[in-house]
Fold:
Amino acid sequence: MKSVILSLAVALASAAPAMSVVVWGQCGGSGYGGSTVCDAGSTCVKVNDYYSQCQPSSATSTATAPTSSSSICSGTRTKFKFFGVNESGAEFGNTVIPGALGTDYTWPSPSSIDYFIGQGFNTFRVPFLMERVSPPSTGGLTGPFNQTYLSGLKDTVSYITGKGGYAAIDPHNFMIYNGATLTDTSAFQAWWQKLATEFKSNDHVIFDLQNEPHDIPAQTVFNLMQAGVNGVRAAGATSQLILVEGTSWTGAWTWTTSGNSNAFGAIKDPNNNVAIEMHQYLDSDGSGTSATCVSSTIGAERLQNATAWLKQNNLKGLLGEIGAGSNAACISAVQGALCEMQQSGVWLGALWWAAGPWWGTYYQSIEPPSGPAIASILPQALVPFL
Structure:
């Protein structure tokens, strides 16, 4: 998600929980602690052991009930190993450094993590800012970590992994630190070695080396990512998955035209546990700023070239961000994208953008209990692929 979104969300207020659950909302399941009473005209229906849902009880309802992935997709599918959401918030207020907790940025809500774990999702990407964990005022990337901010990150990771989930830690900097583009591979490797040391004993941590580099040559980004891989492994973090991202906002739809496809086939990991992270939105410019999707088939279409490239290079991919509007065309487009991925056998999983307590009414917000993507996107486009 491009940084313009981050400055909009701080002022948005969270919605208060309702006494009864809206149609298509969650009303039960393993670990669920919310209301089991549905709004008038709907009934709580068990979807799976982890998720029961308020579905319309009237035959005249115009809403569409969620369908299983077997009826949405044809052919053989591979279940995602990693499936979940981005838990956004600690990267907010990125123009205010260091910023104040609760004013400029926030950490994810434990209740949000519980909500998704309870439904069967297992992976949470946790964006944070490099300038907050490694303040420019105390030595920058080579200086000491800010222990207060680092503790917030570690507490969030511990909560997620303590619930059995995977936490993908994500420096959400676009390969820019303190206003300057990162190019020093040695410094980047050393920074990652130091950070990975903090998490090396937790095998449910995923290292996402850098969010959405852009306006940088693909080869330069590749060199930095390879250095990051080397740094993580040098820290003794040998069991965890590492995610590398490309230039051009790491877009799947531009992967083969941005230079990424020429550079990233050479990525090396001594532990053979690295994947290519791509992002994909389904609006006209792929930015995730419009609720209008190009078409009902645009999801699968935008992934096809990237999928073919992954197969040709014997690599795995993970869609670290996907988002779209809550309308029929977009729901079909998201379903098509996830079908494309599960049928391919090369995608490890997908993460929705985004949960987080400060998104308010942003159309892609999936923050429980009442983010705009909860009512339709969650049950119709995501739950069927668990």
Summary: Residues 3-18, 58-65 have pLDDT under 50 and may be disordered. The longest strand covers residues 347-355. The chain has one domain: 82-385. The CA atoms of residues 320 and 351 lie 5 Å apart.
